[in-house]
Amino acid sequence: MNDAELELLLDDIESDRAERTESTTDGDKFRQAVCAFANDLPDHRTTGVLFVGVNGKGEPTGITVTDQLLQNLASIRGDGNILPFPSLVVQKRVLKGHDVAVVMVHPSSAPPVRFKGTIWIRTGPRRGIASPDDERRLNEKFGFGIATARRELEKNGNPDLEFQVEDSYVAAILRR
User: Fold this and answer.
1) First-to-last CA distance in the chain?
2) What is the per-residue pLDDT across 97-155, written as a single tens digit (0 to 9) for each?
3) Considering the entire predicted model, what is its pTM?
C-alpha cells in the first residue's frame, strides 16, 4: 500500500480493515489484530492494517519507531502463537508528517487463523472472538480455496492434492 492509501485508512473511522493503537508494548493485542486481519471474515480479500503510534482519531502520536520496535512487530509472524503463520509486512512509514509503525496483514489462504488456539475476527471496528458460525464461514473459505486449487491442478494435468491435517495446521501436498 502506498502512503496515500494508508492515510485514507487513517482519516476514516476504524473498521474491519484498520486498527489504531498508541501503545507500542501490548504484544497480545497486536497478535489478536494480526490474527483477525488474516482471517478476513468480511472477505475483503485485501490488506488489513495495524497502525502503531496513532491515536483513535487517526493522528500520529509522535512515537519513535526504532529497529527494535519493528523487529518486535515482525516477530509476531513466526513466534508460534499465530497459526498458520500470517503473511505480513512491517514498515516504518511517514504519515501525516510523523513516523508510524505499520503492520500490513494479507488475508490467509487457509483460514481459520488462531492466536493461542483462539480464532480472532474483526466485526467493523471491533476485534473479538469468532462464534461457531464465524468459524464455519472461515472453514468454508478455505474449502473454496481447495476447490480452486484442485480445478487449476487438473486443468494443468497435475495430480490431485493430498492433505495432512494436524491440530495446529493443515498441509497441502502436491506430488509430482
Assistant:
1) 36
2) 999 999 999 999 889 999 999 999 999 999 999 999 999 899 888 766 677 778 888 89
3) 0.81
- Contacting residues for 119 by C-beta, under 8 A, at least 6 apart: 35, 39, 112, 113, 129, 130, 134, 135, 138
Q: Enter the DSSP assignment of 128.
A: E
Task: Note whether 175 and 167 are within 8 A (CB).
Answer: no
Grid cell 480464532 — which residue?
119
In SS3 terms, 10-49 reads as HHCCCECCEEEECCCCCHHHHHHHHHHHHHCCCCCCCCEE
Alpha-carbon distances, residue 108 vs 35, 58, 83 (angstroms): 9, 26, 10
SS3 state at 155:
helix
Sequence-ordered alpha helix ranges (H) in 40-113: 67-74
With b meaning 16 or more CB within 10 Å and e meaning fewer, what string describes 49-74? bbbbbbeeebebbebebeeebbebbe
Residue given cell 502436491 in the structure block: 174
- Cβ neighbour number for residue 75 with a 10 Å cutoff: 12
